[in-house]
Specification:
It is built from 10 helices and 9 strands. With 271 residues, the protein is of the alpha+beta class. It has a 6-stranded antiparallel beta sheet with strand order 4-5-9-6-7-8. Strands 2-1-3 form a 3-stranded antiparallel beta sheet.
């Protein structure tokens, strides 16, 4: 074989090696992009939120459920949170003036201390305390009701979030069964079953949740409880939720599971 031919073959092999490496690199990047695009996202109806937003929303809705208020209260609270903070529990300095928390309430306006207003349950409760004092709050236009509580510079902006707030509320109150689904990468940390059982008992009016090994069982629960576990799955490292003939997993979302009973909600943590 001549030297020119050998050089040609070597050059060809080098080019092929480089192309193969580049293709593999592009594949890895594509896989990462695909993973990123589906990670840490929850859907309710036609709307998508990040998993930390879903977690905040679940706590806000839990306050409404515990107070046994009409679902409209959850829609109003969520719409306010979407406009004020995009459902983020903002610290001092991250919002306007001295506003803090998911509803951007101001300590200087008598809503509570900075620490209190960064407690999502407390902040939501203060919003609801003011809301229910308004005549016909549950039948008036969404933006008008919220504006009477929040006293924003332009209360009309709240109206733009009504559809999303309604979809989230329908899912988190259980009005829409299996209405919330979340997808995210495998979490690096997983909470203990006892910690998750304590958290759900704090957020929702459930009784006697039990924690054994990797499972949390909530007897006599409902779709609101199942949705709470899904909304907080990324936060706590929950891998699956079973209820009423349905099973949610972070890989597949909701699908039929005939073994899942309607007498209890069962959440299973990542191994």
């Amino acid at each position: 074989m001549g030297s020119a031919v050998r050089r040609g073959l070597i050059a060809t092999l080098v080019v092929l090696t480089v192309l193969a490496a580049a293709s593999f690199g592009l594949y890895v990047l594509w896989q990462a992009a695909q993973s990123h695009s589906t990670a840490e996202q929850c859907k309710a109806g036609d709307y998508s939120v990040e998993t930390d937003q879903a977690s905040v929303a679940s706590t806000m809705v839990g306050v409404v459920i515990k107070r046994d208020l009409p679902e409209r209260a959850a829609v109003l609270a969520l719409a306010a949170g979407l406009q004020e903070s995009k459902l983020a529990n903002l610290a001092l300095g991250e919002g306007d003036r001295d506003s803090v928390g998911v509803l951007q309430q101001r300590p200087s306006q008598g809503w509570g201390t900075e620490a209190q207003l960064q407690d999502i349950q407390y902040a939501t409760g203060k919003f609801l305390d003011a809301l229910v004092k308004i005549d016909n709050w549950d039948t008036m236009a969404l933006a008008d009701a919220i504006q009477q509580v929040q006293v924003s510079v332009d209360g009309s902006y709240y109206a733009r979030h009504e559809g999303e707030a309604q979809a989230l509320s329908d899912a988190l109150t259980g009005k829409t069964p299996a209405g919330l689904t979340c997808r995210f990468a495998k979490p690096a940390q997983v909470a203990t079953a006892a910690a998750v059982a304590a958290a759900v008992a704090q957020d929702l009016p459930v009784t006697q949740p039990t924690a054994t090994s990797l499972k949390i069982t909530v007897p006599g629960a409902s779709w609101a409880t199942a949705s709470w576990f899904v909304a907080n799955a990324d936060k706590f490292g929950i891998d699956s939720v079973d209820y009423s003939g349905q099973e949610w997993t972070r890989a597949h979302g909701w699908r039929t599971n005939k073994a899942a009973t309607s007498t209890a909600v069962v959440a299973t943590l990542q191994k």
